[in-house]
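Collaborator request, handled under Task 6.
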Amino acid sequence: MARTRFSLLLFLFLLCGIGSAAAAGGKEAAYPKGGKWDLRKEQHAHFPLPLPAYTDPEHAAFEGEEGTLWDKLRKRAVAQNHFNLIATIIFACAILHTFLSGVFTEMAHAHEDRHRKIIEQKKRRAVDKPEDDAKDDVSFRAWFFHTLGEVEAVFGIWVIALAGAVVWCHGIVPGEGFMHGVSELQNYLGHDVNYTEPLFVVVIMAIAATRPIIRLSEACVNRVAQLFGGTPAAWWFSTLTLTPLLGSFITEPAAMTI
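Structure tokens returned to the collaborator:
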């Protein structure tokens, strides 16, 4: 688990580095603010294609004034070398992966049990090795499925696939080259994405997860449960009613403080 989180943090750090490098580049926007499409803000990356482009007869992605909804969706799917279709499939896979995380965790446990029996038979446990700092042999399959079972890692994993789709559809397929696709990804991360809200949520959750806040919340839930007799029903009542209220009382003052 620690290795998985370290890998994700490293990947996020690299993404931040790419975004910072793009922000420092000062490249002109691919779609300037205003213009013939009257965009509210400029867009530096060529993806996603602004919605007015699909209704512009002069643009290659024009979907036509007539036709069924299916025809319009099909034309939008093939725009920009099928990038919209690929991105939609990746998003659907991420959602499906979220629901299957429990299955992957069970598979990881099954592989761990099987691996434990194997290393016991082959004398590959830490106690069977002559080294003082020896460790048990690790099962790659168990580690792999355990990583897939981490719910918080799901969208981080599929972001890598989305980044690959950006490089493929906007660099390699058009013949512009691999680095052109990387440049598009840089422009998107460095100019077009706003990290204010995600960082705000991270800070709020970090404050709310500190030990004094957790201990205070536990004490409040315990006190209310004891007032109703300390029975399992009292604990369930206290947990299901007081805990959500405490969540609001804790996070809102933290938000106002920041």
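The cover message to the collaborator said: "Residues 2-193 form one domain. The radius of gyration is 25 Å. Please let us know whether this matches your experimental observations."
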